[in-house]
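WARN retry 2 of 3 for item q-0093 after timeout on previous attempt; input resubmitted unchanged.
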Amino acid sequence: QLEKDKARLDALAQEAQNRLDKAKNLLTNEALPIQQVALSCGFRNMSHFSRYFKQQCGCSPKDWISSVSPQ
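OK item q-0093 returned
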């Protein structure tokens, strides 16, 4: 049972990482509103997306865009 639980958690972590990678790509390369990026990546709402993004990346989606955009 522990093996199954660990495999499930690993799969969920990989899914979350894939969603985050997709979000970073869309924020970097597409001219989409942040809310559209959140929905496109499967997040329920903007608040959930922003909290998760900041927790994982250390900055808000808006700050991420500013940091990767040419000045």
